[in-house]
Amino acid sequence: MEFLKYHALGNDYLVLIYENQDFPEAVLTEEQVRKICHRNFGLGSDGILVGGKSNSEKYFTLRIYNPDGSMAEKSGNGLRIFARSLWDRKMVAESQFQIMTSGGLVSAQVDSSGNSVTVEMGRVSFQSDLIPVSGKSREVLNETLEINGEKITICAATIGNPHCVVLHRKIYSEETRRLGPQLETHPNFPNRTNVQFLEVLNRNTIRIEIWERGAGYTLASGSSSCAAAAVAHRLGLCDDEIKVLMPGGKIEITISENYNITMRGAVTRIGKMTLDSACFDFEIPA
User: Fold this and answer.
1) Contact yes or no for 64/78 (Cβ under 8 A)
2) CA nearest 97: which of 118, 116, 112?
3) Quick one: 147 and 222 in the same domain?
4) So what's the pLDDT on residue 285?
5) Domain check: are 208 and 274 in the same one?
């Protein structure tokens, strides 16, 4: 099994593309994904992208696997990487094309160098029943969650996948690693959630730290950038053109009418990796 490997600002994915054949219903099991993504016992990655295009479709179909074997509805970095991998294989040109995820249909475009990809990510909503967040139907803005007696101010959003944006906290990795897993699995989020710790630097720049659902501490995230930027704009703290700074680099976000989001960021190709079937035979110690 041969994979292409890329990173988007340090967030790395393995890509498996089905070319000139129908996209299969079942590709990888949860156990196989966990073994492939393992940093010591597998190829190592923050996730696996499996995609293709059948003759009957006008768009590409993408499945996004988290390293714990679960599925993600949408991933901004994953979408940019997948788009770049299609461009590298000459399956797309420089014109815009569409990708279907379980979190919705998006449009992507690779620049002429291949080093930057723009994705129209869709619309951000803060509505609790769409995210989802438990409780009555409402916009989840400036609410208080309590974790082990500690009160935390959050907003919540969805762009096809769930996000919890933490406000008024110190932004550093130790805080993210401490609170991130507790927020990810908080009972208020029935499908778990991605977590961003937000700091507004000025009207056009924010900084975030990220705990990603199913992956853990992450250097960069495209959908997290979209959600955090949308929250900053919704709270009146930022304008509609926002640079998002993360430990792995920056992503540029444009917020248009009805909170439709366009994301632009870098993608870097790492190389090809071939998986030996013996990887699946080894049992990872508990």
Assistant:
1) yes
2) 118
3) yes
4) 87
5) no
Show the 3-state SS of 72-83: ECCCHHHHHHHH
State how many domains the chain has.
Answer: 2
231-235: list long-range contacts, CB under 8 Å, 24+ apart: 231/126, 231/141, 231/155, 231/157, 231/165, 231/198, 232/198, 232/200, 232/206, 233/259, 234/126, 234/141, 234/155, 234/259, 235/141, 235/142, 235/155
Position 57 pLDDT exceeds 90? no
- As a whole number of angstroms, the distance between CA 104 and CA 156 comes to 19
Q: Which domain holds residue 62?
A: 2-115+268-281
pLDDT surpassing 90 at residue 93 = no
Per residue in 248-277, pLDDT (tens digit) is 999 999 999 999 999 999 999 999 999 999
Q: What letters, b where the CB count within 10 A reaches 16 and e where it falls short, cover 275-284? A: beeeeeeeee
**What's the confidence (pLDDT) of residue 65?**
96
> In residues, how long is the chain?
286
Question: Are residues 236 and 272 located together in one domain of the fold?
Answer: no
Mean pLDDT (whole number) for 126-141: 98
Name every residue whose Cβ is closer than 8 Å to that of residue 137 and which is 6 or more positions away in sequence.
127, 128, 129
pLDDT tens, residue by residue, 211-247: 999 999 999 999 999 999 999 999 999 999 999 999 9
- Tokens representing residue 176 in the block: 């993210």
Token pair, residue 113, equals 């160098």
Same domain, yes or no: 11 and 89: yes
